Amino acid sequence: MYMDNKKYLGHFFIIVGPSGVGKNTLIQKYMKENPNKIIFPVSATTRKKREGKIEGINYYFLSIEEFKEKIKKNEFIEWALVFDNYYGTIEKKVLLSLEKGDLLMKDIDIQGALNLKSKLKDDATCIFISPKSIKDLEKRIRDRGLDEENAIQKRLKDAKKELENSNKFENIIINDTLDKAYEEFKKIINERICLEK
Ligand code: ADP
Ligand code: 5GP
User: Fold this and answer.
1) d(CA 108, ligand 2 centre) in Å
2) I need a labelling partner for 79 at 20 to 30 A (CA). Which of 44, 112, 119, 184 fits?
3) Total domain count, the chain
C-alpha cells in the first residue's frame, strides 16, 4: 500500500519538469512561506557557475575530474548528464537528513528523479511540473534570458521528450497561472506531510 516502503522519518519531494517551466519558482515560494520547514539539498554539478549563484548554497561546483572521482567512490545516490553537464545528489547528506526527519525538496532531471524515486520508494514524492504548451515554455525560457539561441532550441527539443514521459509521475501540475499551480503544489506537499506525522 501507500506507505509500505517507508524507511526514514523524513521525506524527499522531487520536483521534475522541463527547464524553464517554473520548478525553482515554486520551490522558492514554498520555502519562503515555510521558513525552517524544508531543506534544499545541495547537489554537485560540473556546469559553470552563473552570476549570483553561491558555492555550497546553490550547488557544489566541481571539475569533471572531481565529479567522476565521486561517481567512482559511489558518493551519489543518483547522478545524470544534463545538457552536457554532470549533476548529482550527494547520498550521505540526503540519507542523514532523512534519518533525522528532515523534509527535502529539490529539482532533479527526469532520469535522476526516476532513479532517486526507485531508491527512496515511499520516502520520496515526485511532482512533475508541466507547461500549458511548448509555446508557453518557449516564451518563459526566452523571458528568463539565461540562454543563447542554440541552448533554447536544445531545451525545447528535450522538453518535448520529457513531456512524453510525464505519465511516469504520480503528481502532475500544469504551471499556467502561477497562483493556481502553487495552490496545487502546496496541497500535494501539505497532504503528504500530514501523512508523515
Ligand atoms: P525552472 O526552475 O523549471 O528551470 P524557473 O523557476 O527558473 O524554471 O522559471 C523560469 C521562468 O519562468 C522564470 O523567469 C520565472 O519567473 C517564470 N515563471 C515561472 N512560473 C511562471 C508562470 N506561471 N507564469 C509566468 N512566468 C512564470
Ligand atoms: P540548472 O543548471 O538550470 O540549475 O539545472 C539544470 C537541470 O539539472 C535541471 O533539470 C535540474 O532539475 C537538474 N538538476 C539539478 N540538480 C540535479 C541533481 O542533483 N541531479 C540530477 N539528476 N539533476 C539535477
Assistant:
1) 5
2) 184
3) 1
d(CA 56, CA 39): 13
At residue 83, the pLDDT reads: 82
Q: Is 55 domain-assigned?
A: yes
- Give residue-wise pLDDT tens across range 49-86: 988 899 999 999 999 999 999 999 999 999 999 988 99
**Which regions of the chain are under pLDDT 50?**
1
Domain of residue 29 covers 11-196
The pLDDT value recorded for residue 5 is 79
pTM: 0.94
Ligand 1 lining (C-beta closer than 6 Å): 17, 19-25, 107, 140, 143-144, 175, 177-178, 181
Nearest ligand 1 atom, CA 143: 14
Ligand 1 atom closest to 176 (CA)? 23
Taking the C-alpha atoms of residue 132 and residue 123, their distance in angstroms, rounded to an integer, is: 29
| Any domain includes 108 | yes
